[in-house]
């Protein structure tokens, strides 16, 4: 299940899909995540210029990928580009409740309501509503809010959920991805831009949970 806390540390890096594919390949065979992370830093799989940046980005990737079930880690490493994009969105939702909730309450809402486009103003409205009860949002600096807004849209575009005009693009989940999402929690289907019939079909695959 996703952590109930609102972490706000996704200020840079986007979806990190390519980095995740390389690191997930190590995580599949390594004895544990710490071993995989150390090896990824040694090899600089994230291709950063400084050691500090390599350590920071590698840690972020490992934390996201580690949030997935084992089948998800394997699919990130070995699946298609679309599979890895969708699973890294799932990983981001599992790691960051803000993204999970934004995907459900804003992005998917625009798809099913027919409004179609997500704007920066929608992010600000969502932030303001959530900040009424989430201290981390209410206390965040304006610069942090701006960075998170920019990176949220970057992540959504890189996941293939928004086009360059920020129109919502409905997605199709492969059976393998759908199984990983279901294993993580049926409610997470609601954080993807898919229609109600797809949610019902996926969530009902193995009966109500």
TrEMBL record:
It comes from the Bacteria. InterPro entries: BrxA, BrxA_sf. Pfam families: BrxA. This is DUF1819 family protein.
């Amino acid at each position: 299940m996703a952590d109930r806390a609102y972490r706000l540390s996704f200020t840079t890096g986007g979806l990190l899909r390519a980095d995740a594919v390389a690191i997930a390949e190590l995580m599949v065979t390594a004895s544990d995540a710490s071993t995989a992370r150390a090896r990824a830093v040694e090899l600089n799989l994230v291709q950063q210029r400084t050691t500090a940046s390599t350590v920071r980005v590698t840690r972020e990737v490992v934390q996201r990928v580690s949030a997935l079930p084992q089948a998800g880690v394997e699919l990130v490493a070995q699946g298609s580009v679309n599979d890895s994009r969708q699973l890294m969105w799932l990983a981001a939702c599992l790691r960051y409740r803000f993204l999970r909730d934004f995907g459900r309450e804003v992005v998917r809402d625009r798809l099913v309501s027919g409004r179609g486009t997500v704007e920066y103003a929608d992010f600000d409205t969502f932030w303001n509503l959530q900040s009424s009860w989430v201290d981390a949002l209410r206390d965040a600096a304006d610069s942090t809010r701006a960075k998170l807004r920019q990176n949220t849209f970057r992540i959504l575009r890189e996941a293939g959920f928004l086009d360059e005009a920020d129109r919502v693009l409905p997605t199709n989940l492969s059976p393998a991805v759908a199984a990983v999402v279901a294993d993580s929690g049926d409610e997470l289907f609601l954080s993807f831009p898919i229609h109600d019939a797809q949610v019902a079909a996926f969530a009902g695959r193995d009966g109500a949970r």
